[in-house]
Amino acid sequence: MSAATATASVTPQTHALWQALRRNRLSWVGIGLLLLIVLAAVFAPWLAPHDPLQQNIAYRLEPPSAQFWLGTDSYGRDVLSRLIHGARVSLLVGFVAILIAMTIGSALGIIAGYVGGLIDQFIMGLVDVLLSFPTLLLGLMVAAMLGASLENLIIAIAITEIAPFVRVARAPTIALKQRDFVEAGRALGYGPFRLMGVHILPNMISDVVVLGSLWMASAIRTEASLSFIGLGVPPPAATWGSMIREGFENILDAWWLTVFPSVAILVTVLALNLLGDALRDAIDPKLRSERS
Question: What sequence ranges are listed for the domain ABC transmembrane type-1 (predicted)?
Answer without folding.
Answer: 87-276
